UniProtKB/TrEMBL annotation:
PANTHER family: ABC TRANSPORTER SUBSTRATE-BINDING PROTEIN, THIAMINE-BINDING PERIPLASMIC PROTEIN-RELATED. Pfam families: SBP_bac_11. This is Extracellular solute-binding protein. Keywords: Signal. SUPFAM superfamilies: Periplasmic binding protein-like II. It comes from Rhodococcus rhodochrous. Gene3D superfamilies: Periplasmic binding protein-like II.
Amino acid sequence: MVTVVVACGGGSQQTELAENWDGIVEAAKGEGSLTLYTSAGTAPSEALVREFENKYGIDVTLVRGIDSELLPKVETELGINKGIADVFITSDQTWVESHPEAVMNIEGPSVDEVSYAASENAPDGTWAATHAFVSALSWNTDLVDTAPTSTADLLSPDLAGGKIGLPNPDTSPSIVQFYANLERTQGPDFLERLAAQNPRIYPSTATIMQAIASGEIAISPYSQPMVDEKAAGAPVDYVIPDDAWGVSSFGGVLTTAPNPNAGQLFLDYLLSREGQSAFTAPKYGTPRTDVDGAAAAFQEITLTGGYPAQDEVADFRTRFKSLMF
């Protein structure tokens, strides 16, 4: 059974990492459990954990939260050299790039498979790309007569007057990059033209998706694939457009992991075809090229790098407010 918690305390005695992969697998089973900190969605994370537990008989405590909640916990554990978490998954690439020493070298074989492309997705052999949020173009089928095929369709006169939902860039610097991608792919005047449609602004992906399903808005270019909502009978549909944008996340086994062998085994499973199939299909992008059912492969979407400079973020937020409010 997957154990999901929002906080935990204490700390555990750290065991030693075995010398080879066979030894790591055996030692992981001896450790018998691990703790995962992740900012990934609950349902995909639970699916991944469930499949891992079924395969290896190792219990996983799943601690889910947003990056701003988890990062201080990780930094504290690293600072006192006493860990609770074994594996950490975060979408904060800037933090990842500035903390290469926070995680161990990757030991498992999955990262070396051609289909994973480690030279692009785990170039230092420490942090590994695990998945990506992919911006789907989603709509309410009761309110949109002709299914859109591209982001440019948002400029249709039929979608004017508060029918489009957009994310507020004040929520995260990554949303600034989402808009930068729109201007890069649709033209430098696209935001001005989009603003003329009088869109509604929302604080998060979740609120946008709720608004689409309820009919509060008709469409948005910033949504996860609305697979669950559609399956539940909501009048929604989605497409991954050619100019789809995404934010990649990264995972690693923390140097303070009390169960380093179990952590290494979990990370290897996460990067494997089997693990990616359980985790990324159908909502996330995958770093692998051999996963059926994922929202997209990394090479099919535009992925962000680290967050933009603070002055760039501030300038864009000011411009956005002048256009949209």
